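User: Teach me something about this protein's shape.
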Amino acid sequence: MAHRSVSFLLLLTVCLTSAIAFGQKPSCSLSSKLYAKDSIEITTFGASTVAGINGLQFQPYLKADFEACYPGKTVIVDNYGIPSQTTTQGLARFEQTIKNKKGFVLILMGLNDALAIVDGKMKIAETQSNMNKMVELALAYKLTPVIGTIQFLNPANNKRNQNANYVIRQINRIYKMIAINRKVYSTDINAVLGRDFATLYQDATHPNAQGNMRIAYAWFDTINLIIDEKLLLSGLSQNYPNPATGSTTIGFSLSKSNKVVLTLYNTAGAVVKTLTNSYFNSGYHEILFSTTDLAPGIYIYAMQTPTEQYVKKMVVVGR
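Assistant: First, the predicted structure itself:
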């Protein structure tokens, strides 16, 4: 599984407004219908951005996003943020926090390290070691860790924050490299918030409501990507558009890499065409094909692997 660094601009979710504030649902990936488990359990771990400041947190938005796209699933989003902590302090409580958890652990921590490094109280190598150890522990407990990059501080008229931002860039490069080396995922929270201090921050450090909405979407995109690549049931989706005119798309998912034969039949059971006969990796895939050579009518399409078979109907109304 390749490392992925995901921002809120990914295709899985393109919403720019909050489901909570405006009553709008996030865009849901097709893979949400094929999620293999009964629940989505998320542990959020970090310092003040995770804990929430002045009653503003990203966790309620994240929970609402998943409940909108995964109806019938139990969604748990736990908050283990403690303001002002460094990764050294976080590491001291990390194992106790996660040892009875399941699912995903989102780690957003290191901004206080940057300030401590500027003040000469920490070394950046300590931050790197701490994050490596937290990821290692999460994997040992069979959790799916996601590393979040840390946001910039407002540098206006503040030399300490200016220096800290230089360290933050270094820390974020280290975090992305840890994700690559450990073959886990990262979410670029820094890119989501950027330097939009007037719109997305409530102070020099912490996101406001709009900033927390964006953080939630960023985590949401990453977890959807992980589900799409690692946690799907094998299955066959309804083609779209249906009825088809000119062309249509058939989607299917695999829980593991496998050979897939996708065949189109007429109602008499005769093979009309083979749409694919190839190996695919785990995750969600789509096959777009032309229907201009098909007579109007009802057709059957079947997906077959060495161990499974799925069948659906489609309608062609024109060429």
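Now, about its shape. The longest helix spans residues 159-182. The domain at 5-230 is CATH 3.40.50.1110 (Rossmann fold). If you'd like, I can walk through any region in more detail.
User: That's plenty for now, thanks!
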